[in-house]
Amino acid sequence: MYFDNAATSWPKPWEVIGKVNDALLKAGNPGRGAHEAALWSANIMYRARGKLAELFGIENPLNIGFSENATGALNFAVNQISGPIIVTAMDHNSVLRPCFSKGNVTMVPADFRGNLNMDFFMEAITSEVGAVVMTHASNVTGNIYDIKSVGEKCRENGVLFIVDAAQTAGVVPIDFEKMCIDILCFTGHKGLFGPQGTGGIAVREGLSLLALKKGGTGSSSYDIAHPNSMPDVIEAGTQNTHGIAGLLAGVSFVCEYGVENIYRHEKHLSQLFRKQIKDVENIKVYGDFIGDYVGIVSLNIVDIDSSELCSMLSEFDIYVRGGSHCAPFAHRAIGTEDTGLVRFSFGAMNAEEEAIQAGKVVRQIGESVKLNEK
After folding, report:
1. Which H helix or E strand runs over 236?
2. What is the tens place of the pLDDT at every residue in 179-223?
3. Is 190 helix (H, G, I), strand (E, B) or coil?
4. Residue 2: phi, psi to the nearest 5?
5. For residue 127, how many C-alpha atoms fall within 13 Å in the half-sphere facing its CB?
6. If DSSP codes are grouped into helix, strand and coil, which group holds residue 280?
7. How many alpha carbons lie under 13 Å from residue 66 in its C-beta half-sphere?
8. Structural domains in the chain?
9. Could you report the per-residue pLDDT of 289-335, keeping only the tens digit for each?
10. Model pTM score
11. Which of 160, 208, 152 is nearest to 185 (CA)?
12. Alpha helical stretches, state H, 27-85
């Protein structure tokens, strides 16, 4: 029973595996030739941009570029910032580290349930701020944040708005235009069901950009300067055509299944799981399940180290993730800085019976600790 979809989704749809195999047999170098293999690859890239544009509500597919993962996309995005930066306590290190490396960072605090202080947030967004960079949903608690309100406030003040959609792309509906997003960063191997090593970025039309990496693009080859227009500005060198072929199949699966349906399913699984453990005194669950949340349930059992609990669960063939989850301030906010926690992250491929069975196992372990205390 695999419940580590917030780290990487598994299993992948068969269509994804088929497209990767196809690419291994057919792919040439996209944009670097007019022969059949190169054109096949160029077509894959074009279709993948189009399908992602459909998913995120983006008019021009060429405003989507590919990267190796969300971290690569976020580093490119943060490279565009000039001026003070606002981040949140619930952000991942892929946001925090590049932002803090630039200096002059303000952090929006969060409470013990992982909720952001929205009053503080809105007051902090002024015309003097260079950018707001934030996660759409916490990889620790699963809380979904109101990026639309933040985006509108940024747009009013001329502030660049960068969204980390690592936990929400393919899982939660995202409307790039309505949410006033300037740069959307996503990974391919989680909710989009693509292979690892895939991800990308969507950029608002007309945004001035600086290249983070420089090299061959298959276009403008006589210009000594790297192109500053999308998608070439982010796509230096040969692209991961095999991975993007799989990503195209994964995004197509998401579009056919329906993001809203995936969101409801994952949320339902988390509810079924929590129902099994809700009245066990020694089990502490983190997060706020009153507002919107993705299919993440993070917990600890009293007197059991999070790593030890992961090992105990693996004996029942339950695969989860324990530890600090690369989000140090999130753990500080919810009180797990010293202990870490165990994260169950449900996905579209999980069944109701799995969530219920996993909950029963956690309940059994929690109650056994209680009995031992007596």
Report:
1. none
2. 999 999 999 999 999 999 999 999 999 999 999 988 988 878 889
3. coil
4. -100, 115
5. 2
6. coil
7. 30
8. 14-257 (3.40.640.10), 259-373 (3.90.1150.10)
9. 998 999 999 999 998 999 999 999 999 999 999 999 999 999 999 99
10. 0.96
11. 160
12. 36-56, 70-78
